[in-house]
Amino acid sequence: MMKQQPGKLGIREYVSITVLMVGSKASEDTPSLLSIQVQNAAWMIPILSAGLFFIPLFLLIKTISLFHEKDLFSVIEKLFGKYIGFFVCLVIFAISSFGISVDSRTYTNIIRAYYFNTTPVLVLYGLFMAVCAYGAKRGIRNVGSVSYLLIFYTLLSLFIALLLCTRESNIQAIMPIWGPGKWEVLKGSLKNLSLYADFFLLTMLVPYLRSSKEFRRGTWIAYIFTIILTSAATIVFVCMFDQSLGGIGYPFHSAIRYISLGSYIPNLEIIFFVIWIMGAFIRFTAFLYISALMFGHLFKIKDFEYLIPPLAAVYLLIGAIPETPIDVSLEWKSIVRMTAGPVFTAISLIIWLAALLKGEFKHAENKNSM
Amino acid sequence: MKKNILVSLIKIFNKEPQFNEQSNAKIIYLKERDITGHYDQNLATFKSIFSIPKNTDVKIREFTIRALKRRAFILYIGTMVDSEKVQQSILRPLIENERPTGKIQDIISFPVEKTTTNIGDIINNITSGITALFIDGDRQCYIFETTQVQGRSIEKSDNEVIVRGAKESFNERLADNIGLIRKKIKNENLIVEGLVVTKRSRNDILLVYEKDLVNDELLQKIKDRIHMIDADSVIDLSILEQYLEERPRSLFPTILNTERPDRAVSFIEEGHIILLMSNSPNCLVLPATFWALFHSPEDHYLRTPYGNFIRILRFIALFISVFASSFYIAITNYHVGMIPPDLLMAFAGTRERVPFPSIIEILMMELAFELIREAGLRVPSPIGPTIGIVGALILGQAAVQANVISPIVIIVIALSGLSSFIISDVSMNFAIRISRFLFIFAAGFMGIYGLAALVVSGLFYLVSLKSFEVPYFAPMTPRFFSAKDLIIRHVPIKERFRPGYLKPKDMVKQRGDSN
Amino acid sequence: MQKTKIVCEILLIFILVSTLTGCWDREELEDRAYVIGIGLDRSKAKGKIKVTMLLANPEVGSMQGGGGSIEKPREIISFDANDFVTAKVTANAIISRKISYDLLKIMVASEDLARQPLFYNLINDAAYDKEIRMNVFLAVSEEKASKYFLKNRPKMETRPHKYFQYMIDHGIENGLIPDSTLFRFFKTTERGTDLFLTMNTTATRKKDTKMKGEDEYYAGQVNATGEFDDTQFIGSAVFKNGVMIGKLTGQETSIANTLDDTTNISDFLADIPNPFPGKRKSFAIRVMKREHNKVKMDLKGPRPKIFITLPLEFEFKSNPSMVDFSKKKNQAIIKKEIARHFKEQFEGLLKKTQKQYRGAPYPLSFDARKYFGTIQEYERFNWNKSFLKADIYVKPDVEIVDYGSLTKKAGN
């Protein structure tokens, strides 16, 4: 057996992972959850949240790039000391783990609801996690490669699906433009900061990129891309479903079941489903890898890749607790949604403040001038 | 850690068997010595080494060199040398020349290859068809290149057929093969380096590369890998291929095996390393990526639009041959709504009287197709084509009429089988045919979801494959500088770089403006 | 060796599992009975409905050449059930295969049932069965749906799925029936501001019908003779808040379809009165819609004003008075006549639905939305009430793309 070289992640691969991770939110229940909150102004939330989340993310990345090729956890421990740092890291790990469990269960629910009605959840879920664990064990570089191979087809199929949806939709549905009112929309976007929480977690991958400059560039490219993607998808769904959007659990899947290519190819949801599920596999593979990375960092385990299968099993067990899809969507997911956004934002700001107070910025400047 | 325990456990239960082997220390000792000046001693030594007179085709001829007035003998293997040459240019001058002269080179018109003293060395030479001359009182042995081995002449390539471009292919003779390469690259930097892989049958291989292109680290890595082989005999290049591969159990090949010299040359020019071996009518290209295995030389010989057309065709064929039958299983067993109503009605109507579930049906036909294919290969050539027709027509037609198979399945299998022929590389072809079965099972197990899961797992596996540290999908991902010759190729003028994953010494293939 | 062996063993298990499992979602496609149409009627039993299923026989018409069977192309069963989703199970007492709604094409409700207040609730079950797609068409039949399917005996398209596919697709294309998918039905009803048009069909031929204009018929009134199927798809049933409240003729339906930007009616033929002297009283023209309507609203006053401009293209299909259209004067006359005629038609329909059915026959409320900043303002405006008081002005923007062959006056 040859040991795999860890290898560095190229910027293309990194951007593809990121887009698949964050952008796939448009294809699950996020648009309809947004629509419940702010009705037809749902499409504005991804843009406004991104605007709000930009500040902490910018500060975080700025702070991290002070430390040469260090990941988030190393930076936290360096700034906060051993004990507080450990605690903060533990909180991040716990939130993200919970998030993975709930999100992966959401995906299993979609698969079961639309395509495999009678198959037990555990079988679908188990297969899902097994594939993700296998992929994550291959290392982040390979995950990046696969996502780069697939990203084009994923985006193309999403684009075609949305294009076909526009035939059935009415652009006037986004009027009245402010939905329930400007203030409500702003409040909604504050509540939905967790849309971009994945970017916070992705800072764990800094050491795996060739340089921190590439990381910054990749992050911002992906950031803009996902804003456009999520927002555009939400607009299409709002226009297509109008006021029914809130009542439809997973608008992407309802939409692809409706659209057709003429009367001779009436149903093509399977094509979209295949590509969608591939994107979903990548998404959770990357998630799983990151959380194994966190776990390894927390408990000082060097060969953290061996942790991936057990972690996947644990997530599977947690994710299997809720009995019905409604529990997942409304109760469990809202917990993650409520905590992840504010907590990650707060941590980012505190990290920056700590760095500022400790004079790390000045330190770095001095270094540069020397 | 867990793995180590497992491995040691397995070791306890499966001990390496111990054999009582005969010692050959005496011969090894002999081989390291030099020859002596004593005629009789030398004669006795070599007679015993070559088991004369038991070994019938090893010839010893004793005579006296008149010019030197000394006794001498020549030793050669009768079946491997040109005996006419030995007679005319070596023996006759030695016996008939009467002018006194001190030098063998002046007597014999045949060029002396070299002189040597080491017994082992001499033995190696004789076994490869060389004539050795021993002279009484001379501590040197004269070696004459008289090899003449019987073999095929250069013929048309059988397995990699193309319409346009050079037709010749490698044959079993190493000298011819090198000649085929040399005549295409007229450059002094082309190095043909010889290596011996095994100790017992001394199979020699040749590394061919361009000195000013190839990456030294890569070259060293390949040499190290070759030196690591510890076998008595590797009789063919295809077996060597398996020794060299990083994952010999993998479904997918990581070394390209081709019989076309033009293809080999094009890889040498890009900085790859070619391995040739005597008695093997092909060569190995190291390292090889997915793209190298997927492409065909014809893609480049045809004009760009035509070349790309067959590339895309091949790409589609790849997908059809892998996914046609599994997709059929998935949608007919799980996702019926996907099928247009007319087609669904037709499927259901024809399947109504078929007694088997569709996955058994597909498996039966896939198996039948593979049988026909294999039988067609093994059958003596005059009746070969008949087998194909008989198999395909009779079997398919009869199966449908007997209501064993539905006609739709025949279409699906025929399509996927036909498409699999478009992938010309033998190893890749096998990989695709076998993985097709895996996909069928996955689709039968969990429909399109199982299929997608296997595809993603397969992709994870494929990208983690490496051929001498070159990732399988390079230069697409991870990205390297290259001529961008992946699914679509550019016009030759635009292909400016050698593949970056090889880290060649000279990256740019053609400078000048790329208009 | 060891590794290869383990891999092989795992593979073997995998293979056995995959071939032997017949459970979960796996189902051979010939084990299912495909329902093409569902009929819904009122039942005599309380709280139940009468469900009719039209099942297609896949063996008929699918074989090329020999091997065809003498079986019937379809099977129809009717029975009482709580709803049409659980009816699947009941139907299996009669039908040998597992009932599947995968190929469901049309749901026909009898007019009687459609006028019941619980109708929407009933149809809404379709959203919960994942086999039923949202592009299933909803239709209203004059007679009982169970009778409708029985009486419907297409002569040329014996396979039911093909019959309904052709019938509906071409009907929608010609504008005679509205594009009434379940998706649109749910969407419109949940929005609650507009009327919804459902295709109207019947399999009973009316005896005493007067000759009317090109398509001023209700379903069943088209007076044709010959050897054909009695089923007619023409006109529409008007739904408000998920309950049927009235009917429109074929012509009214095509006018509503022309106004509606969300359907893609390609073009339709219409008659306009002949403004020139001559015996024949009407011109045949092909009407096409160039682009979307331009709608302007003045919602400030007590009586809202709505201005609709329709960009229409016309193509002449006949020229009964042999008019020379190379003359500008004649062009102007016919243009004016077309504008007048269509203005009358459009305004007539909108006023009719406004008065009679208290709503717009297509999603007109969308156009009002842009005049409001927030949903609250829009709700305060209360479209449903305001629309009743609204003055509607329609202006067809006429563009004639083809006058037909330019005929010269006879004798010249």
From TrEMBL, chain B:
Please name the Pfam families in this protein's record. Answer: GerA
Q: Does the keyword Thylakoid apply?
A: no
One annotated GO biological process: spore germination
Quote a single Gene Ontology cellular component term: plasma membrane
TM stretches of this protein:
273-294, 315-334, 404-426, 438-463
Keywords assigned: Membrane, Transmembrane, Transmembrane helix
**Main location (coarse class):** membrane
Q: Entry's InterPro entries?
A: Spore_Ger (IPR004995), UPF0353/GerABKA_families (IPR050768)
Q: How does it sit in the membrane?
A: Multi-pass membrane protein
From the UniProt annotation, give the residues forming the signal peptide: none
Superkingdom of origin: Bacteria
Reply yes or no: does the keyword Membrane apply: yes
| Intracellular or extracellular location(s) | Cell membrane; Membrane
The UniProt similarity line reads: Belongs to the GerABKA family.
| Protein's name in the database | GerKA2 spore germination GerA type complex
Q: What is the lineage of its organism?
A: Bacteria, Bacillati, Bacillota, Bacilli, Bacillales
From TrEMBL, chain C:
Q: What is this protein called?
A: Protein GerKC2
This protein's record includes keyword Nucleotidyltransferase: no
The species is Neobacillus vireti LMG 21834
Q: Where is the Spore germination GerAC-like C-terminal domain?
A: 235-404
Q: What is its main location?
A: membrane
What keywords are annotated for this sequence in UniProt? Germination, Lipoprotein, Membrane, Palmitate, Signal
Protein family: Belongs to the GerABKC lipoprotein family.
For biological process, the GO terms are:
spore germination
* GO cellular component: a single term: membrane
Which ranges form a coiled coil? none
